[in-house]
């Protein structure tokens, strides 16, 4: 060891002047150069000793007594994670995380000021240190335990999954540790370096702070113990020393989960308690939440932000019919005589909104797109925009379960296409067929789930929302069983779309005097004489949530559909039916009518329809159970802004309600000068607003009604809280964002426990009882194996059935034997008592032998968190299929944790056990493919348990994709190492749980036949044979990936790095030629996988400046920038010995480097 300074007993004999020489810097809050000097010392030797001025020493020494008075909670750290905060050898010590207080005792306040000053100095210099940081943790007090505390702290804990996720994130985010010795001296702080360098031993002194790079160094604190008789306060510790610690954290990468309990801003966490809670669905713990909105409406409204601007500012989106649609002058006369129409204004979309379409993104040919109805094309673009705003991606949509319901009807374009106005094609009718509208997005993105197209005239899209709600509606515990015909779908998409392409239907409506002569919808006004036609597209994405979702925009509380029946006429509104529809929706939502504050009306602006609708609302919402409404009911209608968008009208009104609820204000009605005299508002607390009106509360219920001219009524009610403006209830008070950034912001601030991305919910489990969405619930950590408990192994070798472990009293181990299957790899978990929700499992997926992996449980295991027994990794030799392995489970008393190990064996006793325990399971192999709708279809065995085959014909897209599964199990996927598997030399991977998004791609002409053959045994291979050629992929002896450079010079493509001979594939290199730009940026990807990226922590940084991180999926916007003269050859080098477990404690900034080669060097 290298002794940085003299031992403490010698320091006590030295004067103050000599002791200060043992420090690097003296702390100063006023010196402008202190932060820079501190960063220079940290860059030079990775630690710095800072002397704290001693004018308040006596005050700081009182911190220990003040902690007792404040009732500080001393506790052990989370078992298995102690070293992350307490350093090595954490035994015998305790910690207390101090929560911020408005007022602190003087000693603690003085210490906090010192730590805040040091933290601010580091945070101002983080780019110089190679990372971006803006936060520090709360303060952790660190001291020795008493004897009694040690006995209590040795027991295990049951902790929530969020705490474990928090600790994992802390280990990744911590960068600089600050240890401030506020009272007491003596003992040592030992800093452990990598690369076999000597440890640094620093004597601990009072009023001294030691800062070090905790991402590069580890530490051990050995305080000097003091006998009990000299200890003035036994409740604090048996040492005279107390240390206060904080950590500087790097900022989360884009989309990455941030810390929870160690967050630098606990006020934000505490603010969660002040967020208004939303309503539940009856006695269920689920809600149907609105995650995102998308629109394409008149007034150039192309996104929700635009739509709210149109509504809140009173924008009139009605325009004259443009010539690009038709020459309306030929079909118009002021009086509507001679078979012409009297209206020439429409709520029309602009040319770019209706005509422009990215057919290549959706895999459509130009001819197919030309023959597709423009409103259907808008449904695709607006629908995907809505899904993307909810956090979905093309990859996550594939195979997802989602209900989609569309309000749509054939229009003039459909009729013209059917008549051959745009040419004749084989799929001409199909492209305009209403059923195609509902199925397109599901087909393009491989989504599963029910779809429907609804046409009920003006109420079509709100009816579509209600139908979607029926698939998502929670089932309450009080209900005896779920409907036999309905499986609840967790995700939903509702849309409505409309367009106008010739004048003839409008002329017919003029003949029936249904359209206004004034060119606008005069909703609620005395001049109301009909509606003006509009067009547009609206979409809404929803999800079933099992908890309070901070990122949701609203809650869909209730919905109802009904029909007028035999009324005055087919087109006449029927008040009693409308009242019944409203009452049933409110009853389902559990909303009292008086709680509705803002009501969006159908409000077409007709002399008869508006009074009947207002009357129906008066009958249902003026009084309830003897109580009379006091707060006026605000009534609005978006048709005064957009016109009557018909098939899209209902969802446009519902989107408006969500926007009004998020902004706590009601948008104004346009063209309202004098109230329609047929509207009865006498003694009715109602307000028809003509300007923006504040809601008066931070939360509120809003409703929308929609009525089809044939008598089909629809109603939806929502709840929303203020998320923008003066009534913003968001914890961090941001500007409201309607895109996925809002969801990622919630994840970054509060973690996935609060806002999971769309996909499987945390509580959803697979057929093995494992949680699909990650850690959920409580888990035991640090708990001993229970005496008398029976443990079972559940493994892929016997179809995940349970096999009981044997207890060896002499060795104090539980053991189990199994036979290695034909693929040479098996996975397993351990169950306590044979229960699916009481499993022991590794912290990471596919944990290998010899890894110092924390074992969690008992608890519900996340899907894929298994141990992987790989016969190929047995001391570089291959264990053949049929080999017997033994699994051991025991308690390591030295490390105070559970251990699991396995090894092959030929002992007769173990062979007998394996035969006794092994279930006679015949493994099958299935295709998961684009032509099977991503459902597993079993392959045909052509040679028993050895060779399997399937035949596929190329479909209309010209390609097909597939991967294989053992036993139709997603945890046992067989797939190419690189997406598509088209590169030369790509290896086969699996069977394991890492195959998501990796498929073989077969390219050919429509109708071409290919044979897929899988051979299993000592070597697994997959071949694809056509009549002219055959290509084969084989599994290699290991799972080492290939590395590619994706840079600006290769336009984001992939240039393979070659392994350096003789380096055991740890060193890879690539030579590139500098372009005329002189500067290029790049990242490194493993197996061309966009979720396996090696990147720096800073954007556009030079070599040796920032740590290399990964491979992971958080590299968006983070790349290295290399500069050289144009034409120079540059060698890029990747050294894996500085990354991951191999590089633990080593400087990761040295993992990726480059150099300019001499001009004579050969470029490869």
TrEMBL record:
Keywords: Phosphopantetheine, Phosphoprotein, Transferase. CDD domains: PKS. It holds the Pfam family Ketoacyl-synt_C. InterPro entries: Ketoacyl_synth_AS, Ketoacyl_synth_C, Ketoacyl_synth_N, PKS_Beta-ketoAc_synthase_dom, PKS_NRPS_Biosynth_Enz, Thiolase-like. Residues 285-720 form the Ketosynthase family 3 (KS3) domain. Belongs to the thiolase-like superfamily. Beta-ketoacyl-ACP synthases family. This is Ketosynthase family 3 (KS3) domain-containing protein. It comes from Polarella glacialis.
